[in-house]
Structure formats: structure tokens, C-alpha cells
Specification:
single chain; alpha+beta; NADH Oxidase; 7 helices; binds flavin mononucleotide; oxidoreductase; flavoprotein
Length: about 200
């Protein structure tokens, strides 16, 4: 069931997943490949994903996510991490830049990126979290466009998940996203009101 583009905004955090419905691996791949078109600073794509699918891994994650039941009920929960050091030399994006903009262009961009995203702890965190946040939204809309429901979570033990799921170095957990299908036997509370243009935009 494909959802037309404007209907992807009907996405909800569905809270109750049908534990009897699996998410096909091919569909998960399609969601991630679509979502990976998300923009990122200098196209550095400072993100990684762990797809938690096995009962054992789900139990471990459940314990590190305030026992939120959806972790056990959803067929897959993604751990999204952002790499606070992904502006470094070893990012393959710099080779792409060299090939397309020459050595000087790539070196200038690298210098700018390491200042903008690496010169303070606050900048490093902003770099990792803002970019990975865009990937997160892209995943939820990509999922909705393919008829798959989602639920983001940050009521979690970030450090515990980092350690127990083996995230190394400056890779930090940004959020979890459960993916699957709404349990039609449950009732979801109605969508909460949103601030709209008049309330949230100031014209300067
Ligand atoms: C970054 C982020 C973290 C969230 N963390 C949780 C969470 O840990 N548990 C939970 O039940 N809902 C969580 N939510 C879901 C929000 O409560 C939900 O998105 C919001 O109430 C709006 O509802 P809707 O997504 O259905 O439109 C989170 C949402 C976001 C964007």
C-alpha cells in the first residue's frame, strides 16, 4: 500500500505495534535506501543504524529503553547513532569531493568542516544530532510512504545502549525508531494540536 506524498504527513507515533506482523527485510532495505537521500552537512552522512530484530537483542534494548513495550512488540527497532567525528579525513565523502572539485576544493571544504563541526564539543554534538535527526525524519516518512508505521523514542539510556550495542569512539546514540504495523485492536489517542504558521514564524 503506497501512500501519496502529502499523506505521509499523516504519520503518527503509533505506540501499539501488531506483534504478529513481521517487516520484510526487503521492505526495511527499501525504507533505509529511500531515507538515505536525506541531506547532511557537506554530505558527510555522519550516521549509522543498528536494526534490532532478534528476541535477545530486543530484550536487551527494552531494558535500556525504560521497558517501553513497543520495543518488544515492533518487528524492528532502529538504533540511530551520529558520529561526532565524521568530518575527519577518513570520511569517503572527501574522496568524492577530490574527484569532483580537485584537491584544493576538497582541502578547503575539509578545513571549513573541521572548524564548523569539530572546534567545540557543542558543535560536534550539533553536527551529529542535527544531521542524524534529519535521517530519522526521512526514515519515518519513507516508512509511511511504503505503508509502514513508526515510533521515535529518546526516553532511553543513551550511554547504556552505546556500550551494550558496541558503538565505538565518538558514535553517540541519537534516538530509536520502532518500525512495523499498527495493532488494529488498539486505539491510538487523537493527534495532538500543532503550532502553525502564525504562532511559529516570525518574519524578519
Ligand atoms: C525525538 C523524539 C523522542 C521521542 N521519545 C519518545 C519516547 O521515548 N516514548 C514515547 O512514547 N514517545 C516518544 N516520542 C513520541 C512523541 O511523544 C510524539 O511524536 C508526539 O507526541 C507527537 O505525536 P505523533 O508523532 O503521533 O504526531 C518521541 C518523539 C520524538 C520526535
Amino acid at each position: 500500500m503506497e501512500v501519496p506524498v502529502n499523506r505521509i504527513f499523516e504519520r503518527r507515533s503509533i505506540n501499539f505495534f501488531d506483534p504478529a506482523r513481521e517487516l520484510e527485510d526487503s521492505l526495511l532495505k527499501e525504507i533505509i535506501d529511500l531515507a538515505a537521500n536525506a541531506p547532511s552537512a557537506f554530505n558527510l552522512q555522519p550516521w549509522d543504524i543498528i536494526a534490532v530484530k532478534s528476541d535477545e537483542a530486543k530484550k536487551k534494548l527494552h531494558g535500556l529503553a525504560n521497558q517501553q513495550p513497543k520495543i518488544l512488540e515492533a518487528p524492528v527497532t532502529l538504533i540511530l547513532s551520529g558520529d561526532r567525528s565524521a568530518y575527519g579525513d577518513d570520511n569517503p565523502q572527501w574522496s568524492f569531493m577530490r574527484e569532483n572539485y580537485g584537491n584544493d576544493g576538497a582541502e578547503r571544504a575539509k578545513g571549513a568542516a573541521s572548524f564548523l563541526y569539530g572546534s567545540t564539543e557543542e558543535r560536534k554534538i550539533k553536527f551529529a544530532e542535527s544531521n542524524t535527526g534529519l535521517l530519522a525524519m526521512s526514515i519515518m516518512y519513507a516508512a509511511k510512504s511504503l505503508g509502514v508505521d513508526s515510533h521515535p523514542m529518546s526516553g532511553i539510556d543513551f550511554e547504556g545502549i552505546k556500550t551494550q550495542f558496541g558503538l565505538e569512539g565518538e558514535k553517540e546514540v541519537v534516538m530509536l525508531i520502532a518500525l512495523g504495523y499498527f495493532d488494529e485492536e488498539k486505539v491510538l489517542h487523537s493527534s495532538a494540536p500543532r503550532r502553525r504558521f502564525e504562532s511559529l514564524v516570525k518574519i524578519a
